[in-house]
Amino acid sequence: MISQTAEYALRAIVFLADHPDQAHTAEAIANGTRVPVGYLAKIMQILAKAGLVSSQRGLYGGFTLRRSPRELTIYDVVQCIDPINRISRCPVDLESHGDGLCHLHKVLDDALGLVERSFRQFTIHDLLLHEGDTRPLCDFKRKAKELEPATPKR
Description:
Elements: H1 4-18, H2 26-33, H3 37-49, E1 53-56, E2 62-65, H4 74-81, H5 103-121, H6 124-129
Antiparallel strand pairs: 1-2
Helix pairs in contact: 1-2, 1-3, 1-4, 2-3, 4-5
């Protein structure tokens, strides 16, 4: 449904949200997310250019989130890496379709709309708060009531 690059970006953002106490190097994020460091470095540059993360050089440098995990949505991350492109006109430029979509492209666009709405609903904080046995990107079980509940954005 989403590209591997977009998933890697989401892993990096979730990692930073789950470790907000300091800046993290690309290598530390790569180790924590199991993403190749060279590829992750390119993704982090895109995220920084989009204003989702801050980058600082130097001895205590690294990456930090620029936006609150309570405000940052899955949609925000995916859109800056691999945008969801809704279908607004015939992709094969058939004149007979005019400004409308055939049934195939209407169904596809409706599905893209559902994905877009779902991604807009869930914040990065929601991902960390999920009431399950495991936490994202962690090999250990969740501790009871680790995070305070978020106010639903829906």
